[in-house]
Amino acid sequence: MRTDVTGAFPAGFLWGAATGAHQIEGGNVNSDLWELEHAPDTAFAEPSGDACDSYHRWREDLDLLAGVGLNTYRFSLEWSRIEPEEGEISRAALDHYRRMVDGCRERGLSPVVTLLHFTIPRWMHRSGGWRDPRALDRFARFCEAALPVVAEGVDWVCTINEPNMAAMTDRTAKTSTSPAGARPAPDPALSEVLVGAHRRAVEVLRSVDGLLVGWTVANQDFQAEEGAEEATAAWAWPREDRFLAAAKGDDFVGVQAYTRVRVGPDGALPVPEGAEVTQTGWEYWPDALEEAIRHTWQVTGGTPIIVTENGIASGDDRRRIDYTRHALRGLKAALADGIDVRGYLHWSALDNFEWVFGFRPTFGLIAVDRTTFQRTLKPSARWLGAIATANRLPE
C-alpha cells in the first residue's frame, strides 16, 4: 500500500516551472544548435527562430508564474550570448541575466539558474565541442564569467542539464527522438569529460558563500523484465547511474523524469502495444517520478533532491493535470518515507521549442501564440499555482 500522501509539504518547498534558454529566448544565432537546425540535412522538424521571444518578454513570463502562486523559476544562461567568440565576454548579456535574477526576486520567485542547458557556442562546437582537450578549461572560464549573475540573490545553481542525455547525443546530428534510456550507451570518455566539467564548475561556484550547487540528470525509470535484472543494471549504469553517482557529495541533484524504459535481456524494449503515448511518442507514465526519486536517493547515498523537470507533452490540458496530480502524489509518498526532496519544478513554463520535434509538442503551463507571442495561462497553471499557494495536495 502506498504511503499516506496527505498533509502539507515542507516549509520552504520550491514550487515552480522550468525553461531552457535556447528553447524560449529566440535568435540564439551563435549557438551550435542554431547551426545544426539550419544545416541542409538537418534532423530538426523546424528551426528555433524567434522561439517564444522570451529574451525580450521575460518580465511577462515572470509575472504570469508569480501571479498564479508559484514561488520558483528555473532558467538557463546562454553561453553563446555571454561568450559569442572565444575569450570575448559580453557584459550586456551578463547584465541581461542579472536583471532576470533581480526580476525573480522582485516578484517573490526564487531563481534556480542553470549554466549549461545543452547548447554550446559555435566556436566551441567547430573545434570539437566536449572532445576538445581545452573543453574543461573553457567551461570553467565560462562559469567564472557567470559568477556576477549568481553571486547575489541566487540560492540554487545547476551546472549542466542532463549530462547523460548530452553524452548519448551525437552533436553533429541530433537525430534520436527516443527517451535517453533507449539510446546507445555513450562513449565513456565523453561521460568522464562531462563529469570533469561538472567538478570544475562546482569548484568555481563554491567560491560564492552559501551557493548550493548540483547538476540535473535525465531519469528513465528503468524497469527490468522478468529475468533481466542484471541486464537492466548493466544497461542503466552508463546511461544514468554513472551520472547520479557523480552527484554524491553535491548540495543537491536534479531529478528529471517523464516516462519509463522497460529493459529485457537484450536491452531497451519498445512502448507496449496499446499504451497511451504523449506527443513525443513516449509512454504516459506518471509513476516515473516517484521511482526516479527513490532510485536517485539510493544511488547518490542521500543527496538532497529537487525535481527540476517533470511534465507531459499533450494538447489536452486535462491529461496534463491528471499526470501531474499522479506524479505529485508519488513525490509526496517519497517525502513521507524520509527522502529529502526540496522542490518540484514543472516542465515547462511555456509551450516552447522541443529540439528535433520543433514546436509541435506542448509541455507548457502557458500557451504561446506562434505569430503574436501572446501568452495564455492554461488551467493547469492555475491548478498547480493553487497547490503551491496551499503547499499541499487537494484532498
Shape: globular
Main sheet: strands, sense, barrel: 9 strands, parallel
User: What is the mean predicted local confidence, pLDDT?
Assistant: 96
- Summing up helix and strand content along with how strands pair, one would put the structural category as alpha/beta
Range of strand content: 15-25%
CATH class: Alpha Beta
Identify the quaternary structure here: single chain
Give the helices and strands as they follow along the chain.
EHHHEHHEHHEHHEEEHEEEHEHEEEH
Number of strands: 14
Radius of gyration: 20 Å
User: What is the CATH topology assignment?
Assistant: TIM Barrel
Total number of distinct structural domains: 1
Summarize the amount of helix as a percent range.
Answer: 25-40%
CATH superfamily: Glycosidases
Low-pLDDT residue spans: 171-175
Report, as a whole number of angstroms, the end-to-end distance.
18 Å
The spatial strand order of the largest sheet comes to 5-4-3-2-1-12-11-8-6
Number of H- or I-type helical stretches? 13
Tell me which CATH architecture applies here.
Alpha-Beta Barrel
Question: How would you characterize this protein structure?
Answer:
- By secondary structure, the chain is α/β, with parallel strands linked by helices.
- The protein has one domain: Glycosidases (TIM Barrel, Alpha-Beta Barrel).
- It is 38% helix and 16% strand.
- The chain contains 13 helices and 14 strands.
- The protein has helices at residues 21-24, 32-37, 54-67, 79-82, 91-106, 122-126, 135-150, 163-167, 188-205, 229-245, 288-300, 317-336, 379-390; strands at 14-18, 72-76, 110-116, 156-160, 212-214, 216-219, 222-224, 253-257, 261-264, 267-268, 305-310, 341-347, 366-368, 375-377.
- A nine-stranded parallel sheet has the order 5-4-3-2-1-12-11-8-6.
- Helix 5 crosses helix 7 (135-150) and helix 12 runs parallel beside helix 13 (379-390).
- The protein is globular, with a radius of gyration of 20 Å.
- The model is unreliable at 171-175 (pLDDT under 50).
